Amino acid sequence: MTGVIACCLFLLLLLIGMPILFVLTAVCFFYFISVGTDPLMILQRMFVGLDEFVIMAVPMFILAGKLMASGGVLHRLIRFAKVLVGHLRGGLAQVNVMASMFFAGITGAATADVSALGPLEIEMMEKGGYPKDFATAVTISSSVIGPIIPPSVPLVVYGVVASTSIGGLFLAGIIPGLIMGFSLMVLIYFMTYRFSVPTTPRASGSLFWSAFIDAIGPLGLPLIILVGIYTGFFTPTEAAATAALYAFVLGKFIYREIKWKAVPDILLESAIITAASLSILSVSNVLSWVFSVEQVPIRLADFMTSITNNEMLLLLMINIGLLALGCVMETLASIIITAPIFLPIIIHLGMDPIQFGVIISINLTLGLLTPPLGLNLYIAAAITGLKVDRIAYVTLPFLAILVAVLLLITYVPWFTMFLPNLLMG
Predict the structure, then answer these.
(1) For residue 102, which of 217, 261, 242 has the smallest C-alpha distance?
(2) Which of 70, 116, 177, 247 could serve as 148's disulfide partner, Cβ 3.0–4.6 Å?
(3) How far is CA 79 from CA 45, 73, 197, in A?
């Protein structure tokens, strides 16, 4: 009975708009009081949740993203994207998606994509004759590729929770991330028939090589991370630290766009984001422990299998549940809470935990595009001045194609498992 009341309290606090950190804390406190456990145990479980060396990769990747965003890489990535796809129908919209795919290999976070690239991309498309709402929809839709193409903060957190190879997860995210990006580009190709907007001429060979050399610095970061982890040269945590150092050297000494006086602000912004993320992670671990004690995974598995034993229907139910959760709850907290619940079911169905890591990350990241939480919707609304409901409406076709990609990745394991099987055996 206590568990049922705790779940109702959880949903009620979410619905009234309480910040997720306070929701999780309140629910855990209520549970511990109700079952007669010392509430100070919450602090102990919070510490245990962060007492993992690989968790240090999270602040390092956040710092690397901030350094890259401040180090002059944005204009270089956009320029290279223009050279590659600017001549296609819907040229600047295609550039928007391609630039987000490049930036995904740097930050590993969708909100960072919208915050850093968003103002530049939306302004670029507006000047090119695109409606502001369409430009905004393209920007936030392409941003969800960020947590899928490595490095990825959600995949790091999932790897810790599921005790799964982070290197394998990074490899597994490459092909799905590329499919998401190219699917959006195909959709844009047909959607932009209704716009009378110009495209840029196809780039010459000399212009292509000039743009490529200019962008090779930031584009080399994901390669360094993947090769370093795959060869065993460094751990995921060391890879994240290397990424931060690489980003600093690139921005400060190669491009010379990071000034010493800007370094404290970059560190402070990274520390604030890190503090918020790790606070949610620590409390989420407490709630995950509560679910384990209450045998929620076993009960949920019994409930789902009592409805159907059809593997395809069970996977569809899991996807629907994760998509719904992503609409109301923060991504990293959702991963910590739901991964232990669904993993036994997934393993029973014969799915590799690495494949499920990509599936759960896509599901929960799509929640950034949907009300009521939809953080990327609110960031975009703050940037453009548009209403959130208008942005959400124009984003629907992009969301639909991304959900279709999600189902493809769910039911065809090859897309996620080809690279891990090829390179890791």
Answers:
(1) 217
(2) 177
(3) 47, 10, 19
- Report how far residue 356's alpha carbon sits from residue 361's, in angstroms, rounded to the nearest whole number: 8
Show the tokens assigned to 117. Answer: 């690239």
Helix, strand, coil percentages (3-state) for the chain, rounded to 5, are: 80, 0, 20
Give the rounded distance of the alpha carbon of 218 from its chain centre. Answer: 19
Check the CA dihedral 334-414-108-229 and report its sign.
positive
